[in-house]
């Protein structure tokens, strides 16, 4: 029944070693989002896709990239993880882009540890 | 953007009703009031949303003040599983809120047996 699936749930990487987190959805939603949530903080949007259109938040570091090969899948690539990138990464989906009545559906998150 | 204010934490006994307040005194006429919650080590979860009238669903009820400057999320019978951080978020009816959910600090609800 899982609607937004994230793999893996826990990921350990080394400082500077590229890492990819994956997200898939069974809702056939147009929009997919990536949020970063550091310890004891609220989630912060990194970027989102509306269909194939990529939208980066102004303050998202260049170290973070994303790919959406099809409607169902979206990937978060961290090119050179630093210690400050250790966080929970949350994938979410919605039917529409930013409308007040729309709901975002979140996955369980991937907790990234950087050694 | 209109801001919301919530208490940092609240405590409730199991099987009792819980009323979680949210103040949004600068709300605009086109802002929807959304509530999400985040259980420990989980992603946020949509709870309910409304515009002017009170709303009910299987998870909770949302009571909106007549002047819309405050709202209350009501959990009718708290269970241990309801222990979470609850976020009150305003979303414009159009695209003026942007794409991100502005989670703010939320209210951490503790439920005791």
What does this structure look like?
The complex is a heterodimer of chains A (115) and B (113). Chain A has no helices and eleven strands. Chain A is mainly β and 115 residues long. The radius of gyration of chain A is 13 Å and the shape is globular. Chain A starts with a strand and ends with a strand. The mean pLDDT of chain A is 94. In chain B, 0% of the residues lie in helices and 46% in strands. Chain B is built from no helices and nine strands. Chain B has a five-stranded mixed beta sheet with strand order 1-9-8-3-4, with no helix packed on it. The model of chain B has no long low-confidence stretch (mean pLDDT 93). The A-B interface holds A 4, 31, 33, 35, 42-45, 48, 55, 57, 90-92, 97-109, 111 and B 30-32, 34, 41-46, 49, 87, 91-95, 97-101, 103-106.
Set down the secondary structure blueprint.
The complex is a heterodimer of chains A (115) and B (113).
Chain A: E1 4-7, E2 10-13, E3 19-25, E4 31-37, E5 44-50, E6 53-56, E7 64-67, E8 73-78, E9 87-94, E10 105-106, E11 110-114
Parallel strand pairs in A: 2-11
Antiparallel strand pairs in A: 1-3, 3-8, 4-5, 4-9, 5-6, 7-8, 9-10, 9-11
Chain B: E1 9-13, E2 18-23, E3 31-38, E4 45-50, E5 55-56, E6 61-64, E7 70-75, E8 84-92, E9 107-112
Parallel strand pairs in B: 1-9
Antiparallel strand pairs in B: 2-7, 3-4, 3-8, 5-6, 6-7, 8-9
Rounded to the nearest angstrom, the radius of gyration of chain B is 13 Å
Question: How many distinct beta strands of chain B?
Answer: 9
Structural class of chain B: mainly beta
Number of separate strands of chain A: 11
The percentage helix of chain B is under 10%
Distance between the termini of chain B: 39 Å
Largest sheet of chain B: 5 strands, mixed
The helix-strand sequence of chain A is EEEEEEEEEEE
Overall geometry of chain B comes to: globular
**Beta-strand content bin of chain B:** over 45%
- Which assembly state applies to the chains in this document? heterodimer
Strands side by side in the biggest sheet of chain B: 1-9-8-3-4
Instruction: Please bin the fraction of helical residues of chain A.
Output: under 10%
**Integer average pLDDT of chain A:** 94
Radius of gyration of chain A: 13 Å
